[in-house]
Amino acid sequence: MNYLDLSFLTLIAFITVRGLFRGLITELMVLVALSLGVITATVLHPPLQLKILEFFPDIPIAVAKVSAFVVIFLAVNIFIRLLSKTLNKIATFTFLQPVNKLAGALFAFTKITLIISIVLNGIILFPGSDYFLQKMGKDDSLVYEPVQKFAPVLKNLFFPGDESSIKDMIPFDEINPDSTASDILKHLK
């Protein structure tokens, strides 16, 4: 076991235990709050921006835009987190709390392992990444390979028969290390 294993296992254990304490309802609601907050703020900030500029005509437009976005994002997050607390109380009253907690730990474990796997698979796409990963201890690691293969296994589980990967989309053999960004973009079209 090396430092790479310790860092992966520590991160996975921390997030899993946090998921156990939070429960599935809270874990899901945090994810929903963030994504719905961004979507809602993106769509609804222009009218609020105009109202802010109406009340404070001397502030820059950029400040009004950011303020409107932040206010909507925070409002959505607060509302969904309050809803989450209510749903957690209902789960407690209906004796679903142990199931909620265990499902929260499983969801958190899956989420963090998937994130690490996606990051590792993204790093692999860069030239010279193998050297970097070997320096990090990839070859001596017990955890690297199972974690790295987690995202592709989930993809094949949910999308059976789809054998395409990001590596198939980019013709790495036609791109040399001295390529400019425009050369690479020509190959992607």
Task: Explain how this protein is built.
The protein starts with a helix and ends with a helix. Helices cover 78% and strands 0% of the residues. α1 runs antiparallel to α4, α2 packs antiparallel against α3 and α2 packs across α4. The chain is built from 9 helices and no strands. The chain has one domain.
**DSSP strand tally:** 0
Structural class: mainly alpha
Element-by-element helix/strand order? HHHHHHHHH
Kindly report how far apart the N and C termini lie.
43 Å
How many domains, as an integer? Answer: 1
- Note the overall shape: extended
- What's the total helix number? 9
Tell me roughly what share of residues is in helical segments: over 70%
- Residues in β-strands, percent: under 5%
Which residues form runs of ≥5 with pLDDT under 50? Answer: none
What is the average per-residue confidence, as pLDDT, rounded to a whole number? 84
Query: Whole-number radius of gyration?
Result: 22 Å
